[in-house]
Amino acid sequence: MAGIRKQAIITSILVYIGVFFGALNTYLFVKEGNFGPEQYGLTRLFFDVGQNFYVFASLGIIPVIYKFYHYYNDNLDNQENDLLGRSFLISLAGFVLVVIAAYFFEPLVLRKFGERSALFVQYYFWVLPFSFGLLAFSVMEGYATALQKTILPNFLKETGIRMITTVFIVLYIFSFISFDTFMMLFAMLYVIIAIILAIALALNGDIHFHFKTSRVTRKFRKKMFAMQLFVFGGIVISTVGLTIDGLIIASLRGLTDTGVYTFSLYIANLIQIPQRSIQSIATGVLVRLWKDKNYPEISRIYQRSCINMLIISVFLFGNLWLNLTDGLQVLHIQDKYAEGIPLVLILGFIRIIDAGTGVNAQVIGASNFWKFEFISGVIMLALRIPLSYIFIKQYGIIGTAFSDLISLSVYNFIRFEFLRRKFGMQPFNKNMLFALLLSGGAFLVAYFLFRTQNGWFAIVARSVIFSSLVVAGTFFFRLTPDAAQLVENARKRLNI
Fold first, then answer.
1. What angle, 0 to 180 degrees and rounded to 10, lies between the N-to-C axes of helices 189-203 and 179-187?
2. Beta partners for 31?
């Protein structure tokens, strides 16, 4: 247990270091005089297309590694364990199919992207080494995670790749390399970290490639295939849902708008960083509670997560929205990205709505009704794809926000209704309304006090006033049980 706790702490630190380098890279991409919005949009499209290539190539094998590793480890010695070798063969077969499909669909890519996103067409086939590196790394990461050796893979995935990207960006900014060379190096990012991870695992004697079918594989083949098939469908749906907007924008509007969208999305997603941490922590706890059928505690966690995540999201969004215009100016962000300010507003509201529904996805996913989460994901994707296409075509990049608002609202409502009707779990209360009113009031005070000011002084002043009012109000009105608990603990320590 101590080892797991140590790895969790180290991993958390690495994640936040990765967040710093991710923010630095974003700033370097969008700062005046560095990359153009079209070039920045190209990097986004690389990730979107590369993610889809990787997902299809993986054929759902990576979660199977997590699930069945212990059966192999407990019943086979290293000379008989074919799990890693089998996983690589399946992935390689999937990647060959993806390569064939990439060449087969090249005319379609040229037709859809050639006019508005010519730069992507130019580098289209460089997505293949990008996705292959991601595939190879993910297989080895899955195996390393099963071995409970998570520190290095997490460092490489969350921090290492961003640090390497920083080096490539700096080399380009200072004209040591051309943009063409930069994109070729960018395409090799995951290949680099896959090689590093492979070398580390080999030096520790953790890599064993055996391709003869073992008795464990023969015994669990059908179960593994069934899981692989179902998980594959879920991962495809999830990935397509996350990447479809960027692909549609690049096709209909071009890479410049893709770059603006990418930057706006990054700003809005800053709101979700604490939310992802809460969701990650809650998952393991909820699995145990469902096993023990402790429904009152599940309901308590569900309810508390809603109010806590809502307060955090409105706190972060309020600070962002108060200072967004001044922030773009003082940081010398290219003027083109200011076109994404309305998009940030709507995306921010979407993040608040999503946060306000708490850990509903984790509650369902940890239960025996996890298939419902898959079904709701299918419904969301069925809404999102046509809506994104229609709205982006009609309204430009802000259309993606309208699409997300509708599809994610429906998605969260379905999950809310399922938990309410099936288990009687209703997490909302009047404190959530009070939290919104408090944040809105604090926003207006901070805005009107310094509406004529600008620059760094205005940013600091607005942030201090808004943050102080929200934090003080949260504790004074005890909007969350956690705030009340903190107050009581402080009183006990101070003997008040």
1. 40
2. 333
SS3 label, residue 258: helix
| Residue 351 identity | R
**Other residues' Cβ atoms within 10 Å of the Cβ of residue 158:** 20
**Residue 463 to residue 440: CA distance in whole angstroms:** 14
Tokens of 8: 């969790």
* Strand-pair partners of 333: 31
Q: Is residue 123 in a domain?
A: yes
- How many Cα atoms are found within 13 Å in the side-chain-facing hemisphere of 28? 19
Structural domain range at position 193: 1-228
> 363's torsion region: left (phi>0), alpha (psi -120 to 50) or beta?
alpha
Could you tell me where the DSSP H helices lie in 174-272? Answer: 179-187, 189-203, 215-252, 255-269
Instruction: DSSP for 345-359, please give it.
Output: HHHHHHHHHHHHTTT
Q: Is residue 140 part of a domain?
A: yes
The contacts of residue 119 (CB under 8 Å, 6+ apart) are 38, 39, 42, 255
Query: SS3 of 424, please?
Result: coil
Q: Tens of pLDDT along the chain (496 residues)?
A: 444 445 556 666 777 788 899 999 999 999 999 999 999 999 999 999 999 999 999 998 888 887 777 777 777 676 777 778 888 899 999 999 999 999 999 999 999 999 899 999 999 999 999 999 999 999 998 888 778 777 888 889 889 999 999 999 999 999 999 999 999 999 999 999 999 999 998 888 777 777 777 777 788 788 888 778 877 887 888 888 889 999 999 999 999 999 999 999 999 999 988 887 777 677 768 877 887 889 999 999 999 999 999 999 999 999 999 999 999 999 999 999 999 999 999 999 999 999 999 989 888 877 778 678 778 888 888 899 999 999 999 999 999 999 999 999 999 999 999 999 999 999 999 999 999 999 999 999 999 999 999 999 999 999 999 999 999 999 998 899 877 676 666 566 656 6
Residue type, 397: I
CA dihedral (411, 415, 420, 426) positive or negative: negative
Contact between 386 and 238 under an 8 Å Cβ cutoff? The reply is no
* Residue 430 placed within a domain: no
Number of domains the chain is built from = 1
Q: Is residue 393 part of a domain?
A: no
